[in-house]
Each structure stands twice: as C-alpha cells, then as structure tokens.
C-alpha cells in the first residue's frame, strides 16, 4: 500500500490484489483535502490495519469530516468502522440502499449518514459534490460524484481494469491496448449485465457520461486518468456487450493452479 498525490489536494491511497491467471486489480481510496476533508471509500477489509496506518501519513483522521462511501463492497469499507469510532464528527455520504446492506453486518448509525441520490448535490465546505450514477457497477447502491473544486470525477468500480503488473500512478503509463483489454475484462467480470444491454441503449447512456467535463477520472480500480482520457475509457465500455463473457476458473482449473504452486489471493 502506498500513497501519492494525483492532483492538487487529492491523495491516492493505492493498494492492489493479484488474481492468478488474470492480473492485478488496483484498489484505490482517495483523500480530498479542503475546508471539510473527505475520504472516498475506505480500502479493503483485509487491509484494514495497514489502511489506517497509511491514511495517517496523508491526513489526521481526526480532521476528516466526511466519508463518501460509493457502495458497501468489501474492497471499499475496510476502515469505515474504525474511522467512525475514532472520529465522531465524520458523516458518511451514501445511499439508502448502502445503509440497508450495511445494516446486515455492521450497521451505520442513522445520525452519521447523509443520503444523496444520483442527480442531487451537496455543498461541503469549499466545494460541491454532484452525485452521479456510473454507467457500470457491480452493486445497485453505487454512486459516484463530480467534485466542483478539482473537476475530479469519482466513478467507483466503473472504468476499472485488470492490469499486467502492479498499478502505476497514472493511467497514462499504461499501453492503450493493455488499458482497453484490461478494462473490457474487468467489466465482463464486475458488470456482466452489460452483455444483456442493447448496444444502442448503452451508447446513449455512455453519451450522457461523455458530456461530463472532468479534469481527472478517479476509478476505484484504475490508476487516475486525466480528463482527456475519459472518451477512451468510455469507448472501452462500449466494446463490452460484444466481448467474450467471463468464464470463471472451475475446479479443474483450481487444481491446475495448485499443481503449478501458484500463490496469491483468488477474488
Ligand atoms: Fe463493487
Ligand atoms: Fe470495487
């Protein structure tokens, strides 16, 4: 796990997981510095302690005012609970559905949440957060946002990619073909329902997204990408309905992995 500044006032807390036979999945959280500092997602459950230690190198958790929780998957909620315990001022910007899902295993106190739906916005100190629904997602609770202060577009799982090595600090450091292939593979795994969408329907949805004027695109599962790459990221998604659907390793493949002595995390 490491940190780097991706844009003025935005730090990335970057981790990744290796999936045998498939590649590397970046797992990002973001710290937005400002009048009311925001943490976007909270790392993976398995990295909870390391996440807290790493977070302290870029901000005192006592200074955080908000956590934007894009959705309650295990790679996004790692340090959520300890942060809420450590700093009673933090409120969690998220959706009703996220609160419901969290309620099944680690309930969020209702007076600590701020419910914001796609299309709505929230003034937060010196910035306005405009909630959006990314065009691809693996959890119906998902919301991203456009930050008025930096032009950062936060897209949660959308635009993620399986990479051939540990993630660089910018998507510009990836070969365009690797980026496209990695994005398509990721989307077939994370959003397999894209295969069931008529391509003209998806095209209209993506056109709406293409009109967003973003300075930087911050996916949870891709190195930050400058805004001019948004059209490339969208074009990759357009290819997903016609791509080969993901076929997960079965027991025979697993035994072959064991025979090859491959180590690492699966999933
Ligand atoms: Fe997810
Ligand atoms: Fe995710």
From TrEMBL:
Pfam families: ODP. Residues 26-221 form the Metallo-beta-lactamase domain. It comes from the Bacteria. InterPro entries: Metallo-B-lactamas (IPR001279), ODP_dom (IPR045761), RibonucZ/Hydroxyglut_hydro (IPR036866). This is Metallo-beta-lactamase domain-containing protein. The lineage of its organism: Bacteria, Bacillati, Actinomycetota, Actinomycetes, Mycobacteriales.
């Amino acid at each position: 796990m490491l940190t780097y500044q991706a844009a003025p006032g935005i730090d990335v807390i970057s981790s990744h997981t290796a999936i045998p036979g498939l590649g590397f999945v970046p797992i990002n959280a973001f710290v937005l510095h400002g009048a009311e500092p925001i943490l976007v997602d909270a790392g993976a459950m398995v990295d909870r302690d390391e996440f807290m230690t790493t977070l302290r190198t870029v901000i005192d958790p006592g200074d955080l005012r908000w956590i934007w929780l894009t959705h309650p998957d295990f790679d996004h909620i790692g340090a959520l609970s300890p942060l809420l315990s450590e700093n009673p001022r933090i409120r969690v910007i998220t959706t009703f559905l996220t609160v419901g899902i969290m309620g099944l295993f680690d309930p969020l106190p209702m007076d600590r949440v701020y419910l914001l739906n796609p299309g709505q916005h929230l003034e937060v100190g010196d910035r306005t957060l405009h909630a959006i629904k990314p065009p691809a997602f693996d959890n119906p609770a998902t919301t991203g946002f456009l930050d008025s202060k930096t032009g950062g577009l936060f897209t949660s799982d959308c635009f993620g990619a399986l990479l051939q090595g540990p993630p660089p600090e910018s998507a510009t450091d990836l070969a365009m073909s690797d980026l496209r292939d990695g994005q398509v593979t990721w989307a077939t795994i994370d959003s397999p329902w894209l295969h069931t969408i008529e391509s003209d329907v998806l095209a209209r949805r993506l056109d709406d997204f293409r009109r967003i004027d973003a300075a930087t695109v911050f996916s949870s599962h891709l190195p930050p990408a400058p805004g001019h790459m948004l059209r490339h990221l969208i074009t990759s998604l357009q290819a997903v309905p016609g791509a080969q659907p993901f076929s997960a390793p079965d027991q025979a493949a697993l035994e072959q992995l064991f025979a090859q002595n491959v180590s690492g995390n699966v999933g």
